[in-house]
Design brief:
The protein has 483 residues and is α/β, with parallel strands linked by helices. It folds into 2 domains: 6-187 and 438-471, Rossmann fold, CATH 3.40.50; 205-431, Glycogen Phosphorylase B (Rossmann fold, 3-Layer(aba) Sandwich), CATH 3.40.50.2000. Helix content is 41%, strand content 14%. The mean pLDDT is 91.
Length: 483
């Protein structure tokens, strides 16, 4: 690859964590090693990353301008930083609905024949109806067909990257060109120390949930395990949510934990203690999340020297296990007797909320949608705890906290593992570094950039937005916590 290659990475902002961290890995640890000249364009840079050009209008909290003006400003910033126009624009989450002006600016660039790698971390079609509506009304004047052409232009000069095979399969179902949809997992940076930390200190065993406690993180399930915990177990979370819609249920869980005297500690990371230090104080890391984009939570604990327990997400974890990562202490479902919910309450709730969820996307649910959703969340007379909403989960936790006999009905009873040997921990860590480390990530990026450089401009076409929505809205994927 030519060392003169100029790449502009574009995102709304560089707030710590998430996409901002991925872009930093792209630039400093990956692209620089490949001899690529690179600049990051973002609306803000609170993480104080290097080689960043600020274009305030990119941020969804920044000043509003026209798409043409935004396109001119990011071109100007890129040329100034790179000494010439970018050969490739690598744009993150352009279609999420956070800043529709960027969406329209990228569409203009697609029509102009610019070489684009559009990397999608999160979809407006995936449990974000307010984002979808915002895009539909502000970008395409309410026309779903036109929206697809603007969000997802198809042409030889445009490539797409997604985080996993699930998202790739959904795009292919919608008619995306199979040769231009790539799986690009997020990189896992190496820890500075090549040796594993020592086993956890003596005393109560801390099961740490490193999370900002959003609703989809399924905090009720953590409290369920706390309600069934032995005397030597403590459960901890790291950060509180900032979104008001997540804050109310979070405070409700804190109140319940206090009332029931559950062994749960909240916001252990609020003081600024580095995550690695918190992880090393734990016996194991736990996750109960019901939805993730890439699934960093399933890999990072091993790199930091601690095993992982809790809920699996087979759509994601199956890919990790195929590379050799062992996740044997995870469960796919947490079954409880459906009778604990009361007669008819689950079906009535699913029927109402599923219809509302589809209507939020301007769609009517299929005639068999409720039956398909219930079949996916039940097994005979059992129901998966993670598919329930907060009031139902609270009811179950109260039952379990007051009865040791009822706890025997849980499947699994208690998923925690015998502490693995240092050799087992090291094997998982090394497998993760090999398949998801920065060197491998650079190779994946180069494999996408090289053919894109040789591409010629074409007239953008549109995929089927109806098929993409149908894939994400499938009743089998329905969780009450995501409504």
């Amino acid at each position: 690859m030519s060392p003169a290659l100029r790449v502009a990475l574009v995102h709304y902002h560089l707030r710590p964590g998430g996409v901002g961290s991925v872009m930093g890995h792209h630039q400093a640890a990956v692209l620089a090693q490949k001899g690529i000249q690179c600049v990051i364009l973002a609306g803000s840079n609170p993480a104080c990353m290097d080689s960043v050009s600020i274009v305030p209008e990119l941020d969804y909290t920044g000043p509003r301008v026209s798409p043409a003006t935004l396109a001119r400003r990011i071109h100007s910033a890129a040329r100034k930083a790179l000494g010439g126009p970018p050969d490739i624009w690598h744009v993150h989450n352009h279609a999420l609905g956070k800043n529709p002006v960027l969406t329209l600016a990228i569409h203009r660039m697609a029509q102009a024949g610019e070489r684009l790698l559009l990397q999608i971390h999160d979809f407006a079609e995936d449990g974000r109806p307010s984002n979808y509506k915002h895009l539909l009304n502000s970008v395409s004047d309410g026309d779903p067909g036109r929206l697809a052409a603007i969000l997802y232009p198809q042409a030889p000069n445009i490539e797409y990257a997604v985080l996993n095979r699930r998202d790739q399969s959904f795009l292919l179902q919608a008619g995306f060109d199979p040769e231009r949809v790539h799986v690009l997992p997020n990189p896992i940076p190496d820890t500075p120390d090549s040796t594993l930390p020592p086993p956890p200190p003596p005393g109560p065993a801390l099961f740490l949930y490193p999370t900002r406690a959003l609703r989809r993180k399924n905090l009720g399930e953590l409290l369920l395990w706390a309600a069934t915990a032995g005397r030597d177990e403590v459960y901890g979370t790291t950060l509180a949510p900032t979104n008001p819609s997540d804050r109310h249920p979070y405070e409700r869980w804190k109140h319940l934990a206090f009332r029931l005297r559950l062994p749960v500690q909240f916001e252990l990371g609020a003081s600024g203690t580095p995550l690695a230090h918190l992880v090393q104080k734990s016996r194991a890391v736990i996750t109960t999340s019901i939805a993730e984009g890439f699934g960093l939570a399933f890999l990072e604990p091993w790199v930091l020297g601690r095993p992982l327990v809790g809920r699996s997400l087979p759509e994601l974890t199956s890919e990790f296990e195929e590379t050799g990562v062992r996740l044997s202490a995870l469960y796919d479902h947490l079954w409880i007797p459906a009778s604990w919910l009361g007669s008819g309450s689950l079906e009535q709730t699913v029927r109402s909320r599923l219809a509302s969820f589809w209507e939020a996307y301007g769609r009517r649910i299929p005639p068999d949608a409720v039956e398909r959703a219930l079949d996916s969340m039940t097994r005979g007379k059992l129901v998966d705890f993670g598919r329930l909403d907060e009031p139902m989960q609270e009811r179950i936790i109260r039952k379990l906290a007051g009865s040791s006999e009822l706890r025997s009905h849980l499947r699994p009873h208690h998923p925690w593992l015998k502490y693995p040997s240092q050799a087992d921990l090291a094997k998982n860590r090394d497998t993760i570094r090999q398949h998801y480390g920065l060197t491998r990530h650079g190779e994946r990026l180069a494999a996408i950039y090289e053919p894109l450089l040789q591409s010629r401009a074409g007239t953008p076409a549109a995929p089927s937005h109806e098929k993409l929505l149908a894939a994400f809205l499938a009743p089998e994927r329905f969780y009450l916590l995501r409504t």
